Amino acid sequence: MSCDDFSMRVAIVSDIHGNLTAFEAVLADIRGASPDLILQGGDLADAGSSPVEIVDRVRELGWPGVMGNTDEMLVRPDSLEDFARQSSSPPTLWDAIRRIASATRSALGPERLAWLGGLPLVHTEECFALTHATPQSCWRAPSEHASDAELELAYESLPRPVVIFGHTHRPGIRNLPGRLLINAGSVGLPFDGDPRASWLLLDGEIATLRRVEYDLQRELWLLAASGLPGAEWTARILRTSSPQMP
Length: 246
Hints:
It is a single chain. The strands form 2 sheets. Strands 3-4-5-7-6 form a 5-stranded mixed beta sheet, covered by helices on one side. The protein is built from 8 helices and 9 strands. The chain starts with 8 loop residues before the first strand and ends in a 6-residue tail after the last helix. The radius of gyration is 17 Å and the shape is globular. Helix content is 39%, strand content 18%. Helix 6 links the parallel strand 4 (128-131) and strand 5. By secondary structure, it is of the alpha/beta class.
């Protein structure tokens, strides 16, 4: 099959971040869309109420996918330290992230962590490629304001007409000459001011960013009951649908 007659329906879910309530709502919406293939775009567990449940459900469902930066952080803590050393963000941010990651790591246990560690940086199909941030790193992705030239440079190693990524928690579609770049947004932790979960439906050549309402109050309750450090910080992000400092 050539890309000219690509007709598969593909669902991509990214950046779930342990948000079980949003995940269940998106899963119901996906089932209604009846895709031929479902892929996950990384950042499955960290910071949300239900890291174990999310990892187990994705594995049970058999979704292929890629590693996100928080997945790598859980498996290889040094990856966080490498990134933090290059960051201008205050030390209090990284201290909070370390505490959350440590608790999440303990909750997941060695077998789940080994599975996360085996995820690739890139997943390719005949007509599209999926990565969490860029093919070179799951920690850095171009911003929504990046120029066409910056985007081409970031994804030039993926010879596919459609490239899908996440990481920034801000969904969007950019048309470049000969290439479609799509940010699938975040299922569990949107940063664009819209509290609804985001996922991508690729129906042949038509890309649709779908938004799904879910019971935010239920997720806030699960988060408060989880006992995980940083729960109030995550709750503020969920309430505002925007980045917040701990």
